[in-house]
Amino acid sequence: MWLYQGLFLSALSSATLLPGSSEIFLSGLAVLDNANLVMLWLIATLGNVVGSCINYWLGCNAMYFKDRRWFPVSERQLEKAKVQYTRFGSISLLFSWVPIIGDPLTVLAGVFKMKKRLFVLLVSLGKGLRYAMVITLAVGVEQLF
Q1: Spatial contact of 59 and 110, defined as CB atoms under 8 Å apart
Q2: Which 3 state secondary structure label does DSSP give 35?
Q3: Half-sphere exposure of residue 65, counting CA atoms within 13 Å on the CB side?
Q4: How far is Cα 92 from Cα 94, in angstroms, rounded to an integer?
Q5: For residue 141, what are the contacts with CB-CB under 8 A and spacing of at least 6?
């Protein structure tokens, strides 16, 4: 049971701005003889989506501090991000699993007040597909069926 909890926490931290290595953890668990691949996929996906929801929440609340001197994003950078986000739209969240750009995308979705249901749907699709690919690469296609 503790392995599943560890996987959830690893996936959650991987989706936030904290470092994580959920793909390595998931791959290791997937190659175990008695691994329940569907359960591993569900737990990793759920943990990663919850982590993205934390980013969304941070984005929603970050703008309360935009007038503070220590705020890490200038008004100009924020405006530029808004143009890019509007240009590519909410569909860009299908790429929330991509390293380096995925976490900021989920924060920006919160900053720009994207609809929560659409956010969860798109992020879940993207992250679920990514973890399905990780499992497939770890165990091989022939072992899935």
Answers
A1: yes
A2: coil
A3: 10
A4: 5
A5: none
CB 11 within 8 A of CB 45: yes
Quote the CA–CA distance of 127 and 55 in Å, as a whole number.
14
Query: E strand or H helix at 97, and its extent?
Result: none
Q: Model pTM greater than 0.85?
A: yes
- Residue 102: HSE in the Cβ half-sphere, 13 Å Cα cutoff: 23
74-106 pLDDT, tens digit each:
888 888 888 888 888 788 899 888 888 888 899
The residue type of 132 is A
Q: How many CB atoms lie within 10 A of CB 50?
A: 15
The answer to whether the beta carbons of residues 9 and 47 sit under 8 Å apart is yes
Give the pair of three-digit tokens for residue 99.
Answer: 């390293």
